[in-house]
Amino acid sequence: MEERKQQQQQQDIIPFEEYKLPPLGHAISGAVGSTIANLFIYPLDIATIRLQLKKEGEKKKTGILDTIRNIYKKEDGLHGLYAGLGSDTLATVLSSFIYFYCYTALRNVQEVMNKSIGKPYARLNTAQELFLGAEAALISRLFTTPVSNITTRLQVSPKNGFKETAFDIFKEKGLTGFWTGYRASIILVTNPSITYFMFEKIKATFLRTQKKTHLTGFQVFLFSALAKSIATMVTYPFIFTRAKMVGDNGDKKGILETIKYAVQKDGISGLYKGMQAQIMKGFFSQGIMYMIKDYVATYLALVFYHSFKLKMKATAASK
């Protein structure tokens, strides 16, 4: 009897290869990966914002390396290159944690729904992939936009601290000022969904054509970086518009007004100011983030799977 019970326990426990890391595991690995990547590429981030929000009187063309060099020389070295790092790290952790948790949870629900309506595979189609990615990003941005907006101000003008900058935003635009650019973000939710979708498609194509079962760390870096670059090129006008709406102190222009002003001033190219820097930042940020997330997720899967086995055994023993 006892032997039969043990055999039943073994049958109930799925093998590790079939075990799916729960949303919490993806959320933790995503947050860790994003935080470490953010530390590496932060000078690129702050230089990109400066290029996007370059004042009208500054006619001299500068590239991203020149901008980084100028910040280093004129704003207290590394301190200037990492101005606003604390709030940006907070926004990054929150954004990644919420995004990956929501995306994985929504994906699991959709897979169950696909099975329930009689589909032979639980695999999501293209429309479902993009929609779930956008939905997860929209939820994430709702919670993180206030911190992101404060960070943008700190990156442009690092003289004030977090509290002073938050008070300035409130004084200029009221409580809703903390969500300035959120409507532009509604369009930008397609960015992470396009990124994730392109990564999965490139990955699947590569594994199928090369007859491999998994990617190396460098391949994860390269494919995710390429996916992010594609998503950035598609959505950049709205990335630029959001940055302008948040960074222009006291300016209450809406999305359409901001776009119209940029086009009138510099033509269509005005909406693509700083795009090269944004692509470079996204390339390294996404590549590093996904590479680290992949490693962390692998180890977390072992921890969660061990916990899952113990729980299944405890449940079986109590029956």
Rg over CA atoms, rounded to whole Å, is: 23 Å
- Which structural class do you get from the secondary structure elements? mainly alpha
Major sheet size, sense and barrel closure: none
Helix tally? 12
Our measurement of the CA-to-CA distance between the termini, rounded to an integer number of angstroms, reads: 13 Å
Helicity range: over 70%
Shape call: globular
Count of β-strands? 0
Mean pLDDT: 83
β-strand percent reads: under 5%
Give the SSE order as H and E letters: HHHHHHHHHHHH
Low-confidence stretches: none
Q: What do these coordinates show?
A:
By secondary structure, this protein is mainly α. It has helices at 2-12, 23-52, 64-74, 78-81, 85-116, 126-156, 162-173, 182-188, 190-210, 217-247, 255-266, 275-318. Helix 5 (85-116) runs antiparallel to helix 6 and helix 10 (217-247) packs across helix 12. The chain is globular and about 70 Å long. The chain starts with a helix and ends with a helix.
A few lines on this structure:
The protein has 319 residues and is mainly α.
Output the keywords.
globular, 319 residues, single chain, mainly alpha
